[in-house]
Design brief:
By secondary structure, the protein is an alpha/beta fold. The protein is built from eleven helices and nine strands.
Amino acid sequence: MSQLSVKHLLGIKDLTPKDIELILETASQFKEVINRPIKKVPSLRDVTIANVFFENSTRTRLSFELAQKRLSADTINFSAAASSVKKGETLLDTVNNILAMKVDMIVMRHASVGAPHFLSKHISANIINAGDGTHEHPTQALLDSFSIKEKLGSVAGKRVCIFGDILHSRVALSNIFALKKQGAEVMVCGPATLIPKFIGELGVKVEFDLRKALLWCDVANVLRIQLERQTIKYFPSLREYAQYYGINKQLLDSLNKEIVIMHPGPINRGVELSSDVADSQHSIILDQVENGVAVRMAVMYLLAGNK
């Protein structure tokens, strides 16, 4: 079996193009498994995985939990809201207490940028970053790449535009790294206040006009406006945002071209996407959810083999 070049999945930045290819190939085998009548394999039967979430999550957490069950792993779930973190326990103490229960792998989401990287220097278990602050969300980018490949045959040479709140998005950064490593062309589009100043240095195009960006791209990966991360107002109102940057059926029909619509969820319907676009034949949003389980199975399986 081929191996990953890394012991942890902290970010796409650390992966080689070969690593990404291996994860996506392994995921396609696991996708066949989860579509069989018996959806379980004993691949991680002796592995104990802790899901340590210091930040709220529905989709990512459920996806990881389901992937772990499909691989027959033993799991424990930790939620910061109901833990001793509230009593002032440090991150390292929290994790060391979990490791004392003989845990092999930790899936972690944390509001602080670099939290999984800090942990990886202090503990021996494999760590998977399920989102750190506004930094990276590697498994989301991998499942997005898998979904594009499944729909269009390959990622190389495709034009992918990421729309919306680039400034506060960990999905955007991970996707830029993943897409560039696989040979795609990448553009970002949104209000100037939501596009980071450094973004051009990552080798991506920047466009402020929604229509021009849609005419350019094969794939539109539309991000949610992250109001919960915004400490100041970046645009006048959601209504105005929807007017200038919301994608609706009428706009898509006027382009006379096929565009694949993606979204990491949850969708603010009527803001970044209208319902008739989110639920249209252009959309692969529900495929992304299904592919997320297969990709996370692949990541955990490959890291467990890297002991």
